[in-house]
Design a protein that fits this description.
single chain; 147 residues; alpha+beta; 3 helices; elongated; disordered C terminus; metal ion binding; zinc; EC 4.-.-.-
């Protein structure tokens, strides 16, 4: 039997400088990007009153709050990237973990009822790094929200 599943995606960007530690080439020098970020969540239950999985505004505001700590900073001087290489891979994982925490603690019940699927970070439009967490059994752990 088929089960319904909805996915929502929002995009935003931030500007920051970084230098890749241990990299041999131009990127080992401090340089900047307009990083594009894409966040995708999923869920199985829509709100009974508005038929929304989650208000796009809520998801956009969560992402904006997370990116505020990175925007117009030198990432190599900004925790956790003062100790962790500020690669797109590590940025996507950091943003995923921070967005997940914001959603779990959000006052909107719907925010806690969605599952964060993935976060992608692009330094240029032609390439991106995507972070996600997959359950060992291959099954989705998307929470269901009671009607």
């Amino acid at each position: 039997m088929a089960r319904s599943l909805w996915r929502l995606t929002v995009r935003d960007e931030f500007s920051a400088g970084h230098a890749l530690r241990g990299y041999e080439g131009k990127c080992e020098n401090l340089h900047g990007h307009n990083f594009a970020v894409e966040v995708t969540v999923e869920g199985r239950c829509l709100t009974p009153d508005t038929s929304l999985l989650l208000d796009f505004k809520t998801l956009k505001n969560v992402l904006k709050d997370v990116l505020e700590d990175l925007d117009h900073h030198t990432l190599n001087q900004t925790p956790p990237f003062d100790a962790v290489n500020p690669s797109s891979e590590n940025l996507s994982r950091y943003i995923w973990q921070t967005v997940a925490a914001h959603l779990a603690g959000h006052p909107d019940r719907q925010a806690a009822a969605v599952r964060l699927v993935s976060v992608s970070v692009s330094e240029k439009s032609a390439q991106s790094a995507t972070y996600m967490e997959i359950q060992e059994n291959g099954e989705s752990d998307t929470p269901s929200m009671p009607s």
